[in-house]
Amino acid sequence: MKTETVHNVTLPKIGYGAWKIGGDTQPRPEWDDRSLAALHSALAVGYTHFDTAEYYAKGHSEELIGRALRERNVRREDVFITSKVSPSHLSYSALIKACENSLHNLGTDYIDLYLIHWPTPSMDLEDAFRAMNQLVSDKLVKHLGVSNFNLRQLKQSQKLSETPIITNQVPYSLSDRSYVKSGMLEYCQENDILLTAYSPFDEGKLQSNPKLEAIAKAHNATIFQIALAWLCMQPRVITIPMSYSLRHIQENFRAMDIELTKTEMRQLNGL
Predict the structure, then answer these.
(1) pLDDT at residue 155, as a whole number
(2) DSSP labels for 143-187?
(3) Residues with Cβ < 8 Å from 57, sequence gap 6 or more?
(4) Domains present along the chain, CATH in parentheses
(5) Which residues are known to be catalytic?
(6) In this model, does residue 70 exceed pLDDT 90?
(7) CA distance 205 to 154
(8) What is the pLDDT of residues 162-180, one digit of tens each?
(9) How does DSSP assign 193-224, residue by residue?
């Protein structure tokens, strides 16, 4: 299994993203059986990093992750859980309460990595990090990070956080490289920060083309596996694809084992 290590934190190159587990912006109990089956499949395949948020199905995604871990008798220390606080809860007291709710939903005593889900123009980042730092001090959270932050906001977060910022979680894929163009990837690579790529298939917009198809054929892989392998080959980049399908869950996980050549990386970089 390929991993990345920053500040004594080691994470697999590919984790399981839990958006659409248990619902979307609202809980959808009718999705529970399919969601639990997907989580059980991911655990059986070997996923150890699960990424969720209080925003996902209004906390129901967190509840189902906790339930799946209990049903499979997974030791808490054998998995790494990331969750996120919504921008409406960035005041000190609201953020503390949001984390407590996420802990309750997950049925755990701590969250491995806690992120601010996305920034807002009116947020008081100093107050938010006062709460985030307190959560670490109280051992309710082990590590801190951000999501959807631009470079200026990330640097400001580094100054406010009493512990290293572990990641900035942003959209990044073969077809969406906006955060590379902004200098974010280079900054993360130079400052021991993981860039966690969400939507690695650009929300289904990833298009096939002859070069991508040829590389996939050479590795007996799908174009989606190559898209993940391309991310995995980059230093300080991890990714969190989501799927309900056991076949796709397995294929996504196996993409870590694909070794792309320098020539193939250049071709993919040039797409």
Answers:
(1) 98
(2) EEEEES--HHHHHHHHHH-SS-EEEEEEE-BTTB-HHHHTTHHHH
(3) 21, 22, 23, 24, 25, 26, 27, 28
(4) 3-204+237-242 (3.20.20.100)
(5) 56
(6) yes
(7) 28
(8) 999 999 999 999 999 998 8
(9) -EEEEE-TTGGGT----HHHHHHHHHTT--HH
